[in-house]
Structures are given as C-alpha cells and as structure tokens.
C-alpha cells in the first residue's frame, strides 16, 4: 500500500481559518493537480471533521480523467473513505452519494442507530475501541484491493497517520495567503510529537499558481 497525504496550507501554515470553514488556498492549477492525483488513486481518504466542515464530494472533476480510468478497467471515480469514530457523517453528505463506492471507518463506540443509518449508503469498517485504529482500518481497505491511497485531510487525521507510521509521501501546496489564528487547523494537529519526530526527504519543488508544491518522502522510523 502507498499512502500520499495531499494538502494546501497558507504561507503561515494553516489549512483553514479558526472558524474551520472551507477556504480555497489552492488556485485553479493546483486544484487540477489534485484532480490528477485523485484520478491516479484507488481511494481518497478524509476525516469526519473535513466532511462536517467542507462537505467534499471527492470525485474526479475532469471528464477525460474519468474516461481514462474506465478505459483502464477501473471505476470512473476512486473509492471514498471517511474516518469517523462515532458515525457522525450526515446521511445527506456529498461523499455518500452514488458517484463512487464509499467506506466509513468506525470505532466500537459508534452508536447502533448511526451504524444502521450509514449502512444504507456506505461499506462500514469497524476498527478500534474509542477512535478508529488506522492500521487495522487501512489493512482492511488493502484487503479490498485499495493499494494507492490519497489522504485529503484534515489536520487531526494527518497527525494520526504520521503517528501510526502510515504515510509514505506528503505533497503540500503552500499558497499565497496569511490566515493566522492559534486555533486554526494546521497540517498535523492532534497531540503533537515531543520526540521521535517523523522526518522527511525532499523529493521535488514545483512552482504552481502563486505558490509551491513541496513533495516529501517520509523516512522510515
Ligand atoms: N487546506 C486543506 O488542504 C484542507 C484539507 C482538508 C481539510 N481542511 C480543513 O481542515 C478542517 C478539518 O480538519 P480537522 O482536523 O478538524 O478534522 P479531520 O478531517 O482530520 O477529522 C478528524 C476526526 O476524525 C475522527 N477520527 C477517527 N479516528 C481518528 C484517528 N485515529 N485520528 C484522528 N482522527 C480520527 C475524529 O472524529 C476526529 O475528530 C476544516 O477546517 C477543513 O476545512 C483543509
Ligand atoms: N487541495 C486543496 N486545496 C485547498 O485550498 C483546500 N481548501 C482543500 N481542501 C480539501 C477539502 O476536502 C476540499 O473540501 C475538497 O478538495 C473539495 O473536494 P470536492 O471539490 O468537493 O470534490 N484542498
């Protein structure tokens, strides 16, 4: 399995404002790059915080990229995966529509009524007691044939993936905005590391829109 984290940060390192509302940091060319990365992936993964804040669709937008996938014998859109310990994904969330297969990864703590509601719209994976056990959940996705995973945020999930040693590559667009705010989400929130920090090896630097895309490979710990 290969896991690529993709995100867009402001010049001061924020993924959105302190209001945690969707905020376009990428420009048109970076969103097109994200679309190509989606099209090259077997699944696009987000945390439920991102679903609640952004209501993303997580589909491939470019018709030609979808057609190419179909010609290659793949579904037009990659699968979508929501990491959602307690089943808070709303049943009318865009990510649960019929455009692609959707998995919702729950923990044992997800109430039965939420499980029943979500089971009509998604494949449910249960792993972990209070929070989703990401190693187990991703192993189940791999058993279902999903090898190339793209993670689109947010900061809580991305931190946990680094903590679990599950990230192979980070692609970060750094864009031309200052957002500020000590409580605004960053690339890796969670509890933070105090020792044994994951380290990265710079693989590429590309100018795009009015910013840069930094591609880093994650070194083995
Ligand atoms: N700029 C970008 O590239 C970008 C991308 C995505 C999201 N965002 C922004 O990020 C914010 C949402 O991010 P967030 O950090 O609040 O939420 P998130 O999307 O990271 O989801 C976190 C939630 O996932 C669930 N979860 C279950 N198991 C978990 C585990 N093991 N580890 C971590 N989480 C687990 C928990 O319910 C947790 O609250 C929004 O403001 C959104 O607009 C920005
Ligand atoms: N690459 C990127 N640049 C940004 O400036 C930004 N705000 C996001 N945020 C990720 C978030 O999940 C978005 O909501 C989805 O990128 C929307 O996806 P859809 O168009 O609904 O498929 N991602």
UniProtKB/TrEMBL annotation:
<dbReference type="GO" id="GO:0008703">
    <property type="term" value="F:5-amino-6-(5-phosphoribosylamino)uracil reductase activity"/>
</dbReference>
<keyword id="KW-0560">Oxidoreductase</keyword>
<protein>
    <recommendedName>
        <fullName>2,5-diamino-6-(ribosylamino)-4(3H)-pyrimidinone 5'-phosphate reductase</fullName>
        <ecNumber>1.1.1.302</ecNumber>
    </recommendedName>
</protein>
<feature type="region of interest" description="Disordered">
    <location>
        <begin position="63"/>
        <end position="88"/>
    </location>
</feature>
<dbReference type="InterPro" id="IPR006401">
    <property type="entry name" value="Rib_reduct_arc"/>
</dbReference>
<dbReference type="InterPro" id="IPR050765">
    <property type="entry name" value="Riboflavin_Biosynth_HTPR"/>
</dbReference>
<comment type="similarity">
    <text>Belongs to the HTP reductase family.</text>
</comment>
<keyword id="KW-0686">Riboflavin biosynthesis</keyword>
<dbReference type="GO" id="GO:0050661">
    <property type="term" value="F:NADP binding"/>
</dbReference>
<feature type="compositionally biased region" description="Basic and acidic residues">
    <location>
        <begin position="63"/>
        <end position="74"/>
    </location>
</feature>
<dbReference type="InterPro" id="IPR011549">
    <property type="entry name" value="RibD_C"/>
</dbReference>
<feature type="domain" description="Bacterial bifunctional deaminase-reductase C-terminal">
    <location>
        <begin position="3"/>
        <end position="214"/>
    </location>
</feature>
<keyword id="KW-0521">NADP</keyword>
<dbReference type="InterPro" id="IPR024072">
    <property type="entry name" value="DHFR-like_dom_sf"/>
</dbReference>
<dbReference type="InterPro" id="IPR002734">
    <property type="entry name" value="RibDG_C"/>
</dbReference>
<dbReference type="GO" id="GO:0009231">
    <property type="term" value="P:riboflavin biosynthetic process"/>
</dbReference>
<comment type="subunit">
    <text>Homodimer.</text>
</comment>
<dbReference type="Pfam" id="PF01872">
    <property type="entry name" value="RibD_C"/>
</dbReference>
<comment type="pathway">
    <text>Cofactor biosynthesis; riboflavin biosynthesis.</text>
</comment>
């Amino acid at each position: 399995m290969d896991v690529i984290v993709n995100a867009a940060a402001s010049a001061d390192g924020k993924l959105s404002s302190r209001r945690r509302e969707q905020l376009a940091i990428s420009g048109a060319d970076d969103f097109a790059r994200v679309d190509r990365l989606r099209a090259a992936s077997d699944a696009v993964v987000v945390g439920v915080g991102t679903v609640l804040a952004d209501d993303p669709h997580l589909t491939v937008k470019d018709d030609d990229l979808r057609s190419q996938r179909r010609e290659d014998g793949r579904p037009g859109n990659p699968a979508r995966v929501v990491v959602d310990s307690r089943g808070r994904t709303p049943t009318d969330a865009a990510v649960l529509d019929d455009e692609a297969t959707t998995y919702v990864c729950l923990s044992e703590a997800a109430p039965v009524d939420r499980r029943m509601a979500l089971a009509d719209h998604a494949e449910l994976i249960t792993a972990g007691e209070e929070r989703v056990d990401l190693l187990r959940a991703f192993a189940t996705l791999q058993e279902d044939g999903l090898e190339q995973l793209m993670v689109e945020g947010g900061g809580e999930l991305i931190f946990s993936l680094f903590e679990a040693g599950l990230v192979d590559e980070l692609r970060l667009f750094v864009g031309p905005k200052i957002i500020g705010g000590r409580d605004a989400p960053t690339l890796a929130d969670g509890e933070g590391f105090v020792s044994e920090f994951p380290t990265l090896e710079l693989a590429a630097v590309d100018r795009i829109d009015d910013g840069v895309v930094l591609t880093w490979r994650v070194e083995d710990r």
